[in-house]
Amino acid sequence: MQANQGMFGDVVEFTPGYASWWSYIGHFIRSPFYCYAYAFGELLVLALYQKYKEDGERFVPKYLELLASGGSDAPHVLLAKLDVDVTDPTFWELGLRLLSEMVAQAESLAESSGR
Known about the structure:
- There is one protein chain.
- The chain is an all-alpha fold.
- It has a domain at 33-112.
- It has helices at 26-30, 34-55, 59-69, 75-80, 89-112.
- α2 packs across α5 (89-112).
- The longest helix is centred in the C-terminal third of the chain and has 24 residues, at 89-112.
- It is flat.
């Protein structure tokens, strides 16, 4: 069957076996809210990047310490070492603002390319 709608348009052909593709990726089923970890991680990284742009080089040693910490503590505890309060909506707005800028740039590029 030819996919002719949705995010792939008509450039991807799905064979009948793909009707249940999601069922063989176990962590989609076994780990509740698994996909939200990706959204959380992406927004976190975007917000931390904005914080780096604000704080400059003094951000780097604290960030490297965060990376070295791995999963040794809860995210809010680890991020507090970067002077980040994950309960403060203004921190998350940093990432959302950057995401908005990226979408605007992509739309502008698409428009200028005639697409």
